[in-house]
Every structure is written in C-alpha cells, then in structure tokens.
Design goal:
The chain has helices at residues 56-67, 88-95, 105-115, 190-200, 228-234, 244-255, 264-271, and strands at 13-19, 24-31, 36-40, 45-47, 52-54, 71-76, 98-102, 131-133, 138-141, 144-150, 159-163, 166-168, 208-210, 225-227. With 307 residues, the protein is an alpha/beta fold. The chain has a single domain (13-289), classed as Ribonuclease Z/Hydroxyacylglutathione hydrolase-like (Metallo-beta-lactamase, Chain A). The strands form 3 sheets. Strands 1-2-3-6-7-8 form a 6-stranded mixed β-sheet, with helices on one face. Helix 4 (190-200) crosses helix 6 (244-255). The longest helix has 12 residues, at 56-67.
Length: 307
C-alpha cells in the first residue's frame, strides 16, 4: 500500500532517552498544541547475574512526562525486540497509555510460544496489546495523525510510525554508517527488508528518521536522527544503486557471522506479552524461562534429568 504524505511539514517535538545496556533509543513524541504525547519503544533494565529487573529507565520517561504535565495517550512498539525488555506494560499502568503494535505480532508469538513451552491457553493473536495496526492504518494523537507503515524483514511484524515530518523506523534502518537490521531471526528475510526500505525511501527526503539503536561505529559520538535523503545517499548497505540481489547477498553474509543478542531469550518472553512479566505456574511469582539450545547446540539427551 502506498502511504500518502501531506505536503504540510508539521514537526512534533521528539525527546530521546538512551538505554545504554542495549544501545536502544526510546522516544517521547509531543504535540505541544495539546500537551499530548506518545512513547515509542520504552525499556526495562535487567541484571542477568542477579536475576533482577528494575524500572529506572522507564521511570525517567515517566518523570519527563509528569514533570512537563503531558498526557500519554499511546505506547507504541515498533516490533517485538530481541535485545531489551519492553516497559510498555509498566508505563501503561503508570500513565494509562494504550499499547500498540503491528497486527502480525501473532506470527512472532506463535514461534516463541513453542520455544518457551507456553501453556495451550497462551494467546497468540496479539490480544495482550490494546491496538493491533495494519499497514496504512492511522491513530490520532493530539493534532497529529500517526500512520502505520508495515516494514517487515527484520521480523515479520515490524512497523514504522510516521508522525508529521518524522518517521520512527525501529530496527529497519540504523544510522547511515551502520547500515540496516539483521534478518536471521525467525520469519526474517533480507529480500523483504530491502523492499521495506525502498518503501521508506519513497517518503520526502527531508523526513526526519529516528532509529532504535546506535552502536557507534569507529567510536563516533552517539547519534539517533538522520533523514530519508541522508539514508538514500549514504547508508552503507542500501545507498545509491545497490540492487536487491546485492543487498541480500551482503545481508545474509553478515548475518551468518552474528551471534544471538545477549538478551534475546529473556526479552522475547516478556515482549510477546506486551511487556508484562510471566509468572511461575506454581508460585505465581515473576519468572523467566531459559529454554536451552533454542538456537542450536549439542544434543542434550545424555544430560537431561530422568523423567
């Protein structure tokens, strides 16, 4: 579906929050005409060694919103992240915001429900989220319309959100000197990602692009904002005349050398629940399962406890 872009260049105010543990950017996007805001991709903090989860990063967002007397209407997830735990559920309870994700989240839930041995009644239709968006659907936020753009490839369910002259692309694009997202997660596809990026490139070149991560190649300063024009001219993976086949070859070659994200197993068990923590079936206390060899490994038959 072609996204229609207004000639009007309305600019929402964007405040960035950096989650150093996962190199993730979260955003509060504000319409100062109405003092309404939306939150995009908020993070929880986790100490794996101690088995502790904290809300410091999410509370910083909460404090910014309350200190500036803003009303949070929506909490948007660009996708089910594999590198950090979502704080959407926490902020929903604190701020009464409505959680939003792409309608295809069910595809991710079905894969990982099996990996985590979720019970038969675990919903894999996305009902953990308040709103499921399809490509081209819009939500009102203050005087702005948010337009959902389905940009699969990194995952099947990735969404970019166009708000005025700003687009929040999740992991689809990084800063131009970092290239693009990996495509080797379940349901990912490099060819599909290339096509999604070309669709983003149809936006006006002055459109502000806000990325979800920055890994600071060559030690440069942290950066989170670029433009469609800069991406088209400078992105090291898809600039200029890079063909679809060239991109697929490059992306698949790079992905074959990457290790799994450090927090993928705790992250996705929380994120397929819209940021809610699972509970142990007996104690009913917060509990995260660590499935073994979910992404490869040796045969475990000879070291499994007798059943």
């Amino acid at each position: 579906m072609t996204t229609q872009i207004s000639e009007q260049t309305t600019s929402p105010h964007v405040k960035m929050f950096y989650h150093a543990q996962s190199s993730t950017f979260s955003y509060v996007v504000t319409d100062h005409a109405t003092n309404q805001c939306v939150v995009i991709d908020p993070c929880l903090d986790i100490d794996e060694a101690a088995g502790s989860i904290r809300t410091g990063s999410a509370r910083a967002i909460h404090e910014y919103i309350t200190d500036n007397e803003l009303t949070c209407s929506l909490i948007l997830e660009t996708h089910a992240h594999a590198d950090h735990l979502s704080a959407a559920h926490f902020l929903k309870n604190e701020l009464s915001g409505t959680t939003v994700i792409g309608r295809d989240i069910g595809k991710i839930q079905r894969v990982f429900a099996d990996i985590y041995s979720e019970p038969a009644d675990f919903a894999t239709n996305g009902e953990q989220f308040d709103i499921l968006l399809s490509d081209g659907e819009q939500l009102r936020f203050g005087t702005f319309e948010i337009t959902a753009m389905h940009v699969p490839g990194h995952t099947p369910a990735c969404m970019a959100y166009l708000i005025g002259d700003a687009v929040f692309v999740g992991d689809t694009l990084f800063m131009p000197d970092s290239g693009t997202a990996r495509c080797d997660f379940p349901g990912g596809d490099a060819r599909t990602l290339y096509q999604s990026i070309q669709r983003l490139f149809e936006l006006p070149e002055t459109t502000r692009v806000f990325v979800c991560h920055d890994y600071q190649p060559n030690g440069r300063a942290l950066a989170f904002e670029t433009t469609i024009g800069e991406q088209k001219a400078q992105n090291i993976h898809v600039k200029g005349s890079v063909s679809e086949d060239e991109f697929v070859s490059l992306r698949e070659s790079r992905d074959a050398q990457l290790s799994m994200p450090k927090l993928i197993l705790p992250s996705l068990q929380v994120n397929i629940r819209a940021g809610a923590l699972p509970v142990h079936p007996v104690t009913k206390k917060p509990f995260i399962t660590m499935p073994l060899n979910a992404f490869g490994g040796d045969n475990l038959d000879n070291i499994v406890e007798n059943q």
